[in-house]
Amino acid sequence: MIEVCIALFLLTFGVLAMMSLQPTAWRVSGRSDYLGRASGILLAQLQETEAKIMNPNIAIPAGGGSTVYASGQGTPKQGDAAFTVNTTITDLGNSTWRVTVRVTWPGNAAGISESLNVARQEYFRQ
User: Fold this and answer.
1) Is the whole model's pTM more than 0.85, yes or no?
2) Distance (Å, whole) CA 8 – CA 4
3) Interatomic CA distance for residues 101 and 110, integer angstroms
4) Helix-strand-coil percent breakdown of the chain, rounded to 5?
5) So where are the chain's domains?
6) What are residue 84's DSSP bridge partners?
7) DSSP label of 75
8) pLDDT digits over 42-85, tens only?
9) Apex CA 11: angle with CA 7 and CA 14, to 5°?
10) In 3D, which of 69, 54, 64, 46 has the Cα closest to residue 126?
């Protein structure tokens, strides 16, 4: 009988310990989802800006900010997450520019950012 009581106590203790980890798991899962979506948006913005700068027939785009939704639509859908994308383009001289993209979202004002140096490429002329 004592062995059964000890087993039930240990089982109860284990279940309660697992339940206490649940809020942390939800928080980490949500953060991971936002980071994954933000990194995809960041990469797409870097690639788009790089392609525009590399083509000598296209004027250097102006930097600036915009709002991008996780659904990829122009207007938010129900439950959609909004990301703020800020792009800065700095002229480094000698037909070279530095593109810096920062993606933030509600609850994370620091967000993630990445920089890329881009030069005009004559063989990209269309």
Assistant:
1) no
2) 6
3) 12
4) 45, 30, 25
5) 2-124
6) 67, 104
7) S
8) 999 999 999 888 888 888 888 888 888 887 787 888 878 899 99
9) 140
10) 54
